Amino acid sequence: MKYDFLKLALTLVGVILICQACQTEPLPVAPVFLPSPTQTLAENYPTRVPTRTPLPTSTIRPSPIPLTATPVKLIPGLLPVLPTQPPSLPGGINPLTGLPPADPQFLDRRPILVKVSNYPRTGRPHAGLSFADIVFEYYIGEFTNRFSALYYGQYPPKSGPIRSGRLVDAQLTNMYGGILVYGNADPVVEEVLIRSLGDRQLASKNMPCPPVCYEGAATVTNLFADVQKVEEYITRRNINNSRPDLSGMFFDIIPPKSNEFAVSISMEYAWFNRGEWRYDPEKQIYNRWIEEVDTNNKVSMVPLVDRLTNKQLAVSNLILLFATYKEFKPTLHDVDFSTNQSGKRAIVFRDAVAIDGLWKFVDSHRPIQFFTRSGSPIPLRPGNTWIIIVGDKTSLQQPSPGQWEAKFGLP
Description:
eight-stranded mixed β-sheet, single chain
């Protein structure tokens, strides 16, 4: 633990010196292409109510002084006029990563989104998240979260464990012109998915094996998709797989100037559900950590790996996207994207700096776009992106320079 603190302190000092230097000239960096690499409480948690135990001393804890207790209130009429389209990328470049795809033909199809479980923990480590261009993370109720992994520039041989579809998946899949693969859905949710996506919603109960198969017993943690075979299934079914308009993201290897450092970012849904991203200055990426609870309900943070590569998950860009959640019941939520056409708060973390800007909904069939407060596109680092959709009342604290702590809050 002492070693972890020393390592973090040295990293922070190094980042501060680098960022001070970049005020006069751009930070020299090189692109990194990462490796190709609602449920009941009884299902997700221990049978007895756990007693809260402190996180280990190696985990950064928030201070009582908040940087921002609630998201910034944006006043109509005082917002910058945001452009409708950031600069376009050259041909042959993946518009969701700013990098060449594994195969140029991948760009002439729709993205495939796979619903991936985060609970119960017995389904970890996940499979295929390191291959995703974008991972969307969002709240699903009962203090738990879930992922939608978007694959466009490369395919993993396995993605999962697959879990149920949610209302927000209909919007995300449409905004990115994708095809959704999910386990099952509440009847209300399923009706929305079918109405919104038509034959672009692929429930596991309606699919053969392959492309969606159980590995062993038919449990909630054993269902996986072979994304390459999903593509073949789409072709056999004559599902429209034409290339959608995925423009709107902007990439630059040179990080923007910022006075806000970001070497550690955490997202907490409950004391027993926490994720962290810690900056690696050598690879210029954020490594993912996740909570682990032992038989005594003691929480510790461990590296989150991809079971396909056995390497720690890492991202080039991490984004906190503040949005209004609609709660219909404790395990049934949607997210209000469509009313945000002027701009709402988003914080982009890349290259050990934080850019406090805005995100914008363009229309129901266009990707989310990100802008600075002055209205310029926020340049993302070429590579993959992890987007956490947090509630409007999510609190954000900065206990010390470079350390960011978010605690989820509805709506």
